Amino acid sequence: MIIRVSEIEDEGLVVANAGEFVAPFSDASWRLDGLRLHVARDGDDVVVTGQIDATVPVVCSRCLEEFRSDVHPAVDARYVPRPASGHDVELGADDLDLDFYENDQLNLATLVETETTLALPMKPLCRADCQGLCPVCGANRNVTPCACERRAPDPRLAALRDLAARLNH
Question: How many domains is the chain built from?
Answer without folding.
Answer: 2
